[in-house]
């Protein structure tokens, strides 16, 4: 059976992603039809490399109208619909075609799995199903201006199934959404749609738009309306609505309400690892780390039991390991932290957060050569993640670690030149001619914005260029930069009467600690009298967390308690316990427990260090009321 497939797309200003999409699919389908709704960039030029069937369509604020116009030009047996910011896997596509042949025309439409990369760098995964394949029999069309769906033209019911096809979508990464103004556009179209229908699915989609913009109260209202108006629990979006309601309640810090929703829903979705993960997430954000470990390990150790994905496939393995890594990192159990971060990288080698934390932890205890051997032994670096490891090594002031791996950068030597520039900033070694082209104000500013060079790097670079009488234009730019000029004064004992930006001081101190340039850090700290209490307490935290605990505690003592954060109190309490000043530690804990009643860490200290029955009993009572469903607290129910 020779099935012919027509790819139909609508596009507008997609020059950044269209080539990736078409390169993944154009050679697999029988024809490509592209409808352009008003591009002003190179979209049409890129499209013309893959097809001559390129049509213009005046945008009328209706996605279905544009999709149906594209379908009018299709000649294949089946229509496949993709967006420009999507792409597919070739092997998976062949499985999909085989499935179509096996079904022998039994179904009219097919839903495909859409795997959405979300977050800042695409580090989160969200999964949903959407009808993207349908018979080209002129009896099926899209309707709805947005979140379009298929229906029979004459009202006939459609027989649908799920295709063996996964589509990867990058359009909901934060930067992409912001650049294209998707939220505003979608909300406008949804408002129009809801004026006509006002159904449950519209409320679900409206909730998603509010959620992505951080309008959580409005999102909760919309999701609640969607759930209350549902016609059936079996609709795929209903389970997603439940997950989103729980997520919104967590964002609103209505933790016990979120636990109640999970407990009410878990029987409806018994194989859902997402329900278990969200219980763990609630525990995590409230400092219930024993409970969080219990739930995250429950998922990891029972993967066959929890096999039902509602919305977030990454909550089954990647995120539980990441959270466990974060907990053990916080608890300074570094071998277990490394173990879990490595498990994240086994799933996703591009997870920049885990990469940075592994390199940071290794740098605490190992030499540069040992870190290089660890990376080589575990085969961690490839051409796709090289820049992430470079950034991580730059952050700790050890660019030399990345040098053996620059061989993976085959396209050009830009990364190698950046490495040499960074190394020159930190050590003063290297041949300046090898990266001289980077020494211009515009490029240095760009590297600073890309976080390849930070403010301390620029300060060190300025000093080395002045000493060697190099790059007068760049030196002149540095002299005009108010941040660098201020840093020159702060680090060279030049009198400063006022510091307007505490963040310059704090950021510089953290970098100097990461670089282990303690002499410069000491010079900077000579100016701490310029800081307010709210900034000084952050200096204390930086010192404490970098094992200058005595100095950190002294600074804490000079600050007003009103500016202490939860972690500041914990640092002071732990410092008091370490010096066997238990009575004062408990007094601090009692006070902090009143201030931060949703942070379990203070409850736990009081429970595990009882000084009298009354304090113990009142703490247990309050904890059981506040931290509903805690596994850790069950032992206190007896």
TrEMBL record:
Entry superkingdom: Bacteria
Keyword Transferase: yes
Record's keyword annotation contains Amino-acid biosynthesis: no
Stretches forming TPR repeats: 200-233
Transmembrane segments annotated in the record for this chain: none
SMART domains according to UniProt: TPR (SM00028)
Keywords associated with the record: TPR repeat, Transferase
Pfam annotation, one family: Glycos_transf_2
One example GO MF annotation: transferase activity
Residue ranges annotated for the Glycosyltransferase 2-like domain, each copy included: 6-105
Name by which UniProt lists this protein: Glycosyltransferase
